[in-house]
Amino acid sequence: MSKPEPIFYEPWHAQIFALTVCLNETGAFTWSDWVDRFSATLKKHGLTKELNGGDDYFAAWLETFQALLHEKNFATPDQVAELRGLWEAAYLSTPHGDPVQLGD
Amino acid sequence: MSQSNSKKLGELMPHDHHDHDHAHAVLPSEPALRVKAIETVLTRKGLIDPAALDEIIDTYQNKVGPQNGALVVAKAWHDDTFRAALLADPMGVIAELGFYGRQGEHVDVVENTPDTHNMVVCTLCSCYPWPLLGIPPSWYKSDAYRARSVREPRAVLAEFGVTLPETTKVRVWDSTAEMRYLVLPMRPKGTEGMTVQDLAKLVTRDSMIGTGFPKDPA
Questions:
Q1: Residuewise pLDDT in 10s, chain B (218 residues)
Q2: Residues near A19 by Cβ (< 8 Å), separated by ≥ 6?
Q3: Please, what's the b/e burial string for B91-106 (b: 16 or more CB within 10 A of its CB; e: otherwise)?
Q4: Is A10 helix (H, G, I), strand (E, B) or coil?
Q5: Residue A2: is its pLDDT beyond 50?
Q6: Is there a domain that residue A38 lies in?
Q7: CB-CB neighbours of B59 under 10 Å
Q8: Which end of chain A has the least Cβ crowding within 10 Å, N or C?
Q9: Is A100 among the domain residues?
């Protein structure tokens, strides 16, 4: 426990964390509401396996956030799926070493 | 892009990538792609500002961390008046030091004594005093810690190397979205005359969660 640990093990952990905090600060939802929802997801996931607090923790976070975005109509699953496909295509068509960007 | 095209790409298995010989950029993991997609949707709708995201990540990776809590603890060890004020009005004193903000709106300071050892958990998820300690470590978020700290705190503490006299009571504080806790550990022996800065170096993150002791002076 004495070795310094990274704060976020993967960039997407930091990204989803920041997205949630950022949207919370716009007043889109309260933090208590978030905690209630996230706790429920963790509880549900923890019924089938013991969560280690790493990747599975942020997987639960992502699932909760997507459901919240859908419910509040900020981002529907279709919209997310479409952009996910666009990003994937962008990665697969960008030469290695070049910055990956989406066209308009 | 059409759904069918995206599905086709999604069906590519990792071994297919060998055909490309990594000529293209390395494809992020599935959750990473989804997070990027969410960010793009929210940005295009004007719901979030990418610069604000960068600021948040920078803050928690580089600026906010246990060093803030350590300074509070060191000052309390160093100055009895500060310590009394901290215990009486934690939020007022902590805010004066500038350690307020997200997830730090309501923090209580619980003091360890020879009679009582405090430890902090969030049984529901991972509530934690961000302005004082940063982002919680993964063990704090694990099922094992969250479930067992309440049920068998002494066994959990022993796994962290914390053994207490039988006569010391263990008090477990369960954090919520409304209330978080900072443990004020006992000042190590042999630290008389040390400066606040030197004392702060002895205060570990775990000692402020209650799962560790401060370091002994060299």
A1: 333 333 333 333 344 444 445 578 788 999 999 999 999 999 999 999 989 999 999 888 888 899 999 999 999 999 999 999 999 999 999 999 988 777 777 899 999 999 999 999 999 888 999 899 998 988 999 889 998 999 999 999 999 999 999 999 999 999 988 899 999 999 999 999 999 999 999 999 999 999 999 999 98
A2: A65, B35, B38, B39, B42, B48, B53
A3: eebbbeeebeeebbbe
A4: coil
A5: no
A6: yes
A7: 18
A8: C
A9: no
Query: How far apart are the C-alpha atoms of B212 and B218, rounded to whole Å?
Result: 17
Q: Does residue A101 lie in a domain region? A: no
Residue A6, in any domain of the structure = no
Tally of domains within chain A? 1
Which residues does chain A have within 8 Å of residue B28's beta carbon, measured at their own beta carbons?
Answer: 12, 91
The Cα–Cα gap between B27 and B1 comes to 17
pLDDT of residue B103: 75
Can you identify the CATH homologous superfamily of domain B67-209?
Nitrile hydratase alpha /Thiocyanate hydrolase gamma (3.90.330.10)
Instruction: Note whether A80 contacts B34, CB cutoff 8 Å.
Output: yes
> CA-CA distance, A58 to A53, in Å (whole number)?
8
Q: Which domain holds residue A84?
A: 11-93
Domain ranges of chain B: 29-63, 67-209
Is A81 within 8 Å of B9 when comparing Cβ atoms?
A: no
Three-state SS sequence of B31-98: HHHHHHHHHHHHHHCCCCCHHHHHHHHHHHHHHCCHHHHHHHHHHHHHCHHHHHHHHHCHHHHHHHCC
Question: Which residues sit opposite B117 in a β-bridge?
Answer: B170
